[in-house]
Amino acid sequence: MLSGAASDKTVLDLQDVLQRFAFDNVCKIAFGHDPACLLPSLPQTEFADAFEVATQLSSERFRAPILIFWKIKRFFNVGSEKCLKIAISRVRDFAKKIVREKKQELAGKSSLESVDLLSRFLNSGHSDEDFATDIVISFILSGRDTTSAALTWFFWLIYKHPEVENEILKEIKEKSDMPVYEEVKDMVYVHASLCESMRLYPPVPTDGKLAMEDDVLPDGTVVKKGTLVTYAPYATGRMEKIWGSDWSMFKPERWLERDEAGKWRFVGRDPYTYPVFQAGPRICLGKEMAFLQMKRVVAGILRRFKVVPATEDDGFQPVFLAYLTAKMKGGFPIKVERSSRFMD
């Protein structure tokens, strides 16, 4: 797809392309199912469209100035709530279809041959259809939108900071002779750049937890059972108290230090300072897989192409939309240029 765009000088919406990639990828890994959203023709798919509508309208409930409005619309089944109901129905129908097909597939086998997560999940005794359907939707939500959101803002930031892109290219070139897994695992500067990108533009800008019992936070704040506690990785990542006076700068080096041999070594932050992947018992189970995917995509694309925003306005600044997951308003239109940086 990128080769075609480079040859034809066509404009692609990188945000859409990355969402399609992440959707196909998570479906293959989680369910052994390929929805083929990333075909060169960029087909419209009912489920992906419904999923997008459902996540957007769900998040808008939290931003309603008066909460009773959306509840009234839901009661009378009108407006955005009617659209949300239809979208959710389509999402659940698709997810149930996957669960039923997977159950039939497993019923015809004497042993577990499939390596996808849903097969292992069903085979472990979690056979309730509604519960399995919720798991399918959860996998897609966590694997599709978060990875694509992180990569969308990452490619924007490295375009704006060519010195960072040059360091990334240098590292990619150094690791290019390694086996794929070792290559990706050893990309320290790319890893730091992704962490820094997600500090400024976290894939989940705000998140909330419901207290199941009375509790007390470390600072003494009393939390009663049934209270919704919301925290904001977007705000945390921009606090001068945590990140210093240069918090607004895109600076991968803040995650790195030199070892005795003069090579970069990654220095992580504790998950409560950097809650992009949550923390404690609720820490993201797919964190390592997400980094593996993102570093592989970064290396694969930058080895062959340069991503350039398709705007004539040098001062253009994309707008950050905080839905359930982060979005770039209007997408991220780009032009793709072939790179000769690895030809020598």
Automatic annotation (TrEMBL):
The residue range of the signal peptide is none
Q: Which SUPFAM superfamilies match?
A: Cytochrome P450 (SSF48264)
Q: Which residues bind heme?
A: 284
Membrane-traversing stretches: none
User: Which domain of life does the UniProt lineage start with?
Assistant: Eukaryota
Co-factor(s): heme
Q: Which Pfam families match?
A: p450
Q: Which GO terms describe its molecular function?
A: heme binding; iron ion binding; monooxygenase activity; oxidoreductase activity, acting on paired donors, with incorporation or reduction of molecular oxygen
State if Heme is listed as a keyword.
Answer: yes
Recite the UniProt keywords alphabetically.
Heme, Iron, Metal-binding, Monooxygenase, Oxidoreductase
Tell me the protein family, please.
Belongs to the cytochrome P450 family.
Q: State the name under which the record lists this protein.
A: Cytochrome P450
Organism of derivation: Gossypium barbadense
What does the organism's lineage look like at the top?
Eukaryota, Viridiplantae, Streptophyta, Embryophyta, Tracheophyta
